[in-house]
Amino acid sequence: MARLLRSIAAAAAAIAIGSTSVAAEEALDGLWMDSDGEVILEISKCGGAHCGKVYWLKQPNGADGLPQRDTRNPDESLKSRFVCGLTVLTGFEKQSDGTWGGGTVYVSDLGMSFSGQAEVLSPTRVKVTGYVGLPLFGQSEVWSKVTNPPPRCSNKKPSETKPKD
Question: What is the CATH number of the domain that holds 103?
Fold first, then answer.
């Protein structure tokens, strides 16, 4: 009987540990707003890592009234990409210390990519760091989980999204 109880306890512990790692992995999944309230990213598993796409923009259109494009990208062939829906986080993998690393953060406002890491601070807060070289010399900001999201941004012209009479 004691052996059976130890086996059940060991199995329960293994399930609890497994559930914790799955929950921790999923903690990065979801919609996250940057600290300035300018963008919401949708982070999810893509391949063996996690990536993030632009879900919403505070300013979805440029000065010309058209949907924003990746005009500051140094690659001429990518400058016509829409910012809405653009993948800007790639390659984030769970690290042994519980953080997420090995990723890249693309900042379309600058047309630049940085190494990236993320640390889930709570179920509603994640600290994201972009850096060149060492994280110590990077910039961090805390993003907030979005539970009641606005509508997803669109790459249609404003006149194409108005209801017809």
Answer: 2.40.128.520
Q: How far apart are the first and last CA of the chain?
A: 76
User: Using 50, 70 and 90 to split pLDDT, how confident is the model at 23?
Assistant: very low
Q: What is the DSSP string of 100-125?
A: EEEEEEEETTTTEEEEEEEEEEETTE
Chain segment 87-114, per-residue pLDDT in tens: 999 999 999 999 999 999 999 999 999 9
Full-model pTM: 0.79
Q: What is the domain range of residue 105?
A: 29-155
Alpha-carbon distance of 108 to 129, in angstroms, equals 16
Rounded Cα gap, residues 38 and 110, in angstroms: 15
**Cβ count within 10 A of residue 60:** 19
Domain assignment present for 162 = no
pLDDT score recorded for residue 137: 82
Domain assignment present for 12: no
DSSP state of 67: B
User: In this structure, is residue 18 part of a structural domain?
Assistant: no
Tokens of 157: 């012209």
CB 103 within 8 A of CB 115: yes
Asked if residue 64 belongs to a domain, the reply is yes
